[in-house]
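User: Hey, quick favor. My workstation is busy. Could you predict this chain's structure for me?
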Amino acid sequence: MKLIFIKPENSILAAYIEGYYFLSNQDDAFKFSYYTFPNNFQILSVLLNAEINVLADSVNVTPGHSKSLQSNFTYNYTKPIKIQYSGRVNELTIYFKPLGLNRFVDDLSVYYNEKGSFLPFQSFGDFEAVFTEIMNTDSTNSAIQNLEAYLIQKLKPKQLNIIEELVREIEHTDVSGLSQKYNISRQYINRLFHEHLGKSPTDFVRIQRFRKSISSSEVKLGRRGVDSLFYDQSHFIREIKRISGQSPKSFFKNIDLLSPGPWQII
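Assistant: No problem, here it is.
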């Protein structure tokens, strides 16, 4: 198995994209499974020659019978999801920062109206042709150059001022405080989060705190809750259990930081 994670080389794209990872394998007997945990990235996964079976709490990826491109958009899940690969795989995944993908798509809310989190995504007319060419490129460097050139073409100038401010401040200021500061109702704040991010302000903050608690493998458990803006240690333990389904000690012992979102390899 070959797994490569790369930060954007283009400084403009780096403002909206956390990074890309390439996962490939040519062994028919290959099997690989991991748990992925909730995060606030807007995740676009593209697979070449694959079949994707999305279940309630798992996603199974197997080789496809025809040469085709499968693409999925993931934006909101609140429990761990098991990802399972069998056989050959060729995958490219883009981790857009919160509000990042909104800069490339006219109206992302059409996806948020659908049920589920792993949704078919082909928002551009030339999407399949371009990504098929990118994923058939032997050189990772060339693939990145072609990918970033394509993304720059699709970048749209947008004014997202109010929601950007809310996203930036909501970790430190509750919805009532933001409502007073910006002179807007709490209901309007809730609507903005659902419209632009597909989730409530409460879920966004909960997941953001969870992610901050795993940002450093060297921080002791006693410090993680404080540094991640949990109210106290009991709040920290309760939220880690709620999101990961495990105690903090077990969870932090077994996660792998192979991508922007934590994995637990099985």
